[in-house]
Give the backbone structure.
Amino acid sequence: MRKLRGGSQETENSVMIIEDYHHKMAAHCESGSITSLLNHAGMTITEPMVFGISSGIFFGYFHKMKSFAFPTFIVRNKPGQMRKNLHKRTGVRFYSKDFRNIDSGQIALDNLVLSGIPTATQVDMFYLDYVPSWERVHINVHFLVVIGKEDDLYKVSDSYFPNVVDLPVGSMNKARFAQGSMSPKGFLFYPEFVPPSFDYEKAIRKGIKKACFNMLCIPIPFLGIKGIRLFAKKITDWPSMARDTEHLSHEVMKINILLEDQGTGGAGFRFMYATFLQQASEMINKPELKALARELMEIGDGWREFSLFAARIGKNRDLGPDKFKQMSELLYQRADKEEDFFKRLSKTIK
Amino acid sequence: MKEKDGYSDCPEQQVILYVEKEDGKYGAMQTGSYISANYIDDFFFKRGNLEKTLQEKIERGEINAIEYYRVLEELTVSELASRAGMMKWTVKRHLKPGNFNKIREASLKKYSEVFNVPIEEIAGRQSGNRK
């Protein structure tokens, strides 16, 4: 055995496991991967802080899009944007690369891992063998960290799982080179430079300002607060778009999955952003942020109430027009609350 | 949300929630997925019904096996075409019930990779319409 960079170990068979990489579950795959990689590189930062500085909070509603079989929504900024925003605001520099073919993508990933560098890669969740069948859907924007390779198995630190998992090389290649919208193209990244310190106050302010801008000012009718209102308006059309009651029930229950289950930390990232605001309030000594954090936690409780309501009516097949009207009203309330909240947050941080 | 309200019992699917701890600080807690803990049986019930309905449609000649998997995996025609690396109109032609036997082996292989099922399984689903 030979010691490599970062306390890693290699045997004669090129087996490598980066043993000092600390696997930790996280709320979200992208912010979780970035946080773990930065922590491994020696930077002390929390997942909510990464999420907040990179302006992760967002909302977008897509009623009809060629890549979605049914209306859907997002509750975070564009995949990849967290890494870019973090670089701009903290000075962390990431090495990143995508690939034209599977062979070069695999060789690059293997070389990095075998030289002791934990590397994040973008995958389609559908091909990950360790994911339970009911969670396997075609989502091209899942991130995981590869921390080792043993013969034909990658050792994977996936922030949605409590332990390090194994993934065969064939499945990893399928997942990294899946086609379709936002195809990963084998994309990988790792932090190549971490500054010894950075101006937290400036980074936090910029992160909050951009988040407020995204929620309040983007002049596109389906993004930000406008997106929540559009969702509230259009959700009453859902029954006419479904094949049958069970399909409608499935889509309504997916609201709960998108808000609570699919790596958001609960309430569509609102709880995680509230945690960021509370941490930020202490770091930059701004007590107003603490009060706003509490308020956002309450707004999040309203989102959770909405998502639990959706799960319940979906399960009971109680999907009459009155229930959709009720969901619409709950969404309008969320939009009003969040508009007021982000306006005040924006003023507080000026 | 208070920490005690976030708890769900589902060892098969763990998630991280950010909650208010007893000391008033917000932080992460590891718990089970709420929807999997409470409603996973319903998911499999609906999935089973959908599989059955689609299989019956294949047997009646209303759809073919490619359409079966497309609907099951919630892919639009555009998305399926993009994932399989084919033109949309080609996929549309392949999706017509009577055209399954005209699909080339190479195209079937592409579909099998997208759906992550062997070609034999797709062909078998077509109930003997293809060798």
User: Anything to note?
Assistant: Chain A touches chain B through 55 residues (CB under 8 Å). Chain A has two domains: 2-44+93-193, 202-349. The CA atoms of residues 35 and 45 of chain A lie 7 Å apart.
